Amino acid sequence: MILAVLTINIVFVIYLLERRLYRLSKVFIHVVSILFILTFLEALKFKTNNLYIQYLENIIGLTLIPAFYVFSKDINGEKTNIKERILISIPIFLLNIPNLFLFGKSDILLENRIFSMLLVIYGAIILFLSFSNILKANIKKSIKHSIILISSTLLFYISLEILFFSKNTLRILFSVSLSFFITMFILIRRSWLNILDELKDELLMSFSDGIIVLDNQGYVLDLNKTASKILNLNFNNIINKKLEESFNNDEVIFKNNTYYIVKKLSFKNGIVYLFRNITKEMEYSKKHTIADKLFSTLFKNIPDAVAIITPKGKIIECNRQFTNLFKLKRLENIESIVPSYLKSESKLIILEVLKNGYATYETIRKAKDGKSVFVKIRAVKFEIDDKVFLYTIYTDISKEKMLSSKLSNLLEKDPLTDTFNKTYIVKQMGNLSSLLYHSLILIDIKGFKWINSIKGHKFGDQLLREVSNTLKEFTKKEGLDVIISRAQNDEFWFLIKDLDIDPINALEKTKEIIAKLKKDLSTLEQNFFIGSYVFKNSEDLEEIIRKATLSLSKAKESNKEVIYSKEIEDQIQKEIKKENLIKIAIRNQEFIPFLQPISTEDRKIIGAEVLIRWKKDGKIIPPSEFLNFLEKSRKITDVSLQIFEKVMDFLKKNPKLKFIDINISPVQIKEPDFPINYLKIMEKYNIPSQKIVFEITENLFLSYDNTVKENISRLKAEGIKLCLDDFGTGYSSLSYLRNLPFDILKIDREFVKNIDDEKNINLLKAIYSICETFNLIAIPEGVENARQLEILSMIGFKLFQGYYFGKPQSLSEFSKLIN
């Protein structure tokens, strides 16, 4: 029985803590504590049969009677004060007083029928008071009746046990524990409902939106403060009363100077109205609508042509003035109104707008019927929903241009040649596009002063008119956008606009134009000096004229055409700077040799190719950064001799190496004293010529002459071997093998790279067979893995070069490798 009581109490504790019923009534903690103590005391009494334990059980156990009263108060939502608790606990002590005076003799409370009867009556009174509280509680009737039934049954049983039965404490404990356990289960549901109600109230009241709940008959069940304010309803006056107003879903209402949208939500037992404040949205919508109307009115009625385009140039909207100006019947790409020679300018305008947010240009556009229209373009970037558009306004300025042209003819034209004067061309140079490159060509008649003196001014004037006409005809024939000016007495300025966005292209175009122009001017049987300058409008105007004038002066000095270009000047400065650095590098011995091994199949190193590197400030600079310049500036010879001497010194210290492969530039081999310089160094270090291989590339044979032929013959006569590099590509020809004394062929790495290709394997076999026929050593380059080595070895190759055997490395590293 003790185990049964203990089990119920343990389960009681678990559910008490898990469901947090102590928050509903702290009496549960009191009850479970008392039941545990009584169970422990009962077990102790069973072993010792001590009457004092029974007295202690009476005092502790009887506290359950007032505890039930406190429980009923908690259920009703009331709190018991201290005085009330003391008052209902006094009878417990009074009933136990006889036991204190008859201490150790008998249990008067249970043995005496009068005291037992008083105990039952006291319990019944407390129970009756408790029932009164429970009946008043705001809980379901079924829960009230269940608790009253359980409590009454428990009291009835305990009364029988005390008055008529054997007063078995364990049975009483079991009944109390079971009764409270059942009561707890009944109250769990009430606890859930309380939590849900609290949650509902919290959510309902914390919403910023108005909420009102109705049953199916339209009676108000609940509403929050926001809804009370919106509908002007008092909570106490509207609850359980019918709502006079009804609303539709998504209906917009105006209450208390505020706009609300109504959401109607239906559920099983009624409906919920949700009122959301949309005043800001309504105001924004009104402003947006007004803005749309204003924009639409402006867009349609502005006197200029307007188009809205995408960054790709697609017209998505345009006004009537735009279609009228350009004779368009439907929306097209903006490129349809751009002349072919201004296509790049149109794209650049779009790029400038996207970068800066706006752009303003005066330019030419063409209508659908082919007519050119002078326009002023003002474009602005704007965004809608993260999409970018360009708002472009086209103002027709054709009339202004025509009037300006007439005024220019009167004020800015040279009457003798009908070309513009210097004032006009200088002014126009300031109006050129800042995105594109332009060219100013200065043309001077050679010896014009003597022509005037010898043949007279009349002849001179006629010559000036002929030059002017030739320039005009040339402009028309080539389709150039040019301003022609007689800027000085015998000096014409030829301003070519919008040549190109790229400076190099603009320079090349200027060269072509000058060559054609010179040819046309030659028909006048006079000599001309021509100088020019390719520039951008961002440059200072005086500087442009100064540089163009300087180019003309240089042309007079050199008696040939001179083009002065800022980019070329910068390049010259860079080349000069680079040349100075290389001169210092040569002087400081900064160019050093690197060696890459040439090995047999079993990775035995028998030779090496010499590669040049530039060691500057502790960094290794690859040949791609300087080799072309060395050849172009003819400094390659000095550097190559320095490298060769270092390699010869290395070869003397490492006699195991059978040969060294030296790359020779076509520039060097064309020099008459080329072999002598190398032979002297070999003699200085006592290196046998059989250990030296000179490697040359195939492009040497594009300029093969007697000097090259004699140098090759001298090298062969001294016993130096020749190697042809990159065989199989470029200018390869079998005639080289037949007519020139090569000893070694370097097979291009592309054949090795694609070695798994059957055609490549067949080509390698063919090359090997050719080498066998001509008694040549073949060395495949670019061997990077064991598979490539295996296939090449099976074909028959004996020597190999590539990263599989070693990367190019310094002399000290290579020395460690071979030793």
UniProtKB/TrEMBL annotation:
<feature type="transmembrane region" description="Helical">
    <location>
        <begin position="52"/>
        <end position="72"/>
    </location>
</feature>
<feature type="domain" description="EAL">
    <location>
        <begin position="575"/>
        <end position="819"/>
    </location>
</feature>
<feature type="transmembrane region" description="Helical">
    <location>
        <begin position="172"/>
        <end position="188"/>
    </location>
</feature>
<dbReference type="InterPro" id="IPR050706">
    <property type="entry name" value="Cyclic-di-GMP_PDE-like"/>
</dbReference>
<feature type="domain" description="GGDEF">
    <location>
        <begin position="436"/>
        <end position="566"/>
    </location>
</feature>
<feature type="transmembrane region" description="Helical">
    <location>
        <begin position="84"/>
        <end position="102"/>
    </location>
</feature>
<dbReference type="InterPro" id="IPR001633">
    <property type="entry name" value="EAL_dom"/>
</dbReference>
<dbReference type="Pfam" id="PF13426">
    <property type="entry name" value="PAS_9"/>
</dbReference>
<feature type="transmembrane region" description="Helical">
    <location>
        <begin position="27"/>
        <end position="46"/>
    </location>
</feature>
<protein>
    <submittedName>
        <fullName>Diguanylate cyclase</fullName>
    </submittedName>
</protein>
<dbReference type="InterPro" id="IPR000160">
    <property type="entry name" value="GGDEF_dom"/>
</dbReference>
<dbReference type="InterPro" id="IPR029787">
    <property type="entry name" value="Nucleotide_cyclase"/>
</dbReference>
<feature type="transmembrane region" description="Helical">
    <location>
        <begin position="114"/>
        <end position="135"/>
    </location>
</feature>
<keyword id="KW-0812">Transmembrane</keyword>
<dbReference type="InterPro" id="IPR043128">
    <property type="entry name" value="Rev_trsase/Diguanyl_cyclase"/>
</dbReference>
<feature type="domain" description="PAS">
    <location>
        <begin position="196"/>
        <end position="243"/>
    </location>
</feature>
<dbReference type="InterPro" id="IPR000014">
    <property type="entry name" value="PAS"/>
</dbReference>
<dbReference type="Pfam" id="PF00563">
    <property type="entry name" value="EAL"/>
</dbReference>
<feature type="transmembrane region" description="Helical">
    <location>
        <begin position="147"/>
        <end position="166"/>
    </location>
</feature>
<keyword id="KW-0472">Membrane</keyword>
<dbReference type="InterPro" id="IPR035965">
    <property type="entry name" value="PAS-like_dom_sf"/>
</dbReference>
<keyword id="KW-1133">Transmembrane helix</keyword>
<dbReference type="InterPro" id="IPR035919">
    <property type="entry name" value="EAL_sf"/>
</dbReference>
<dbReference type="Pfam" id="PF00990">
    <property type="entry name" value="GGDEF"/>
</dbReference>
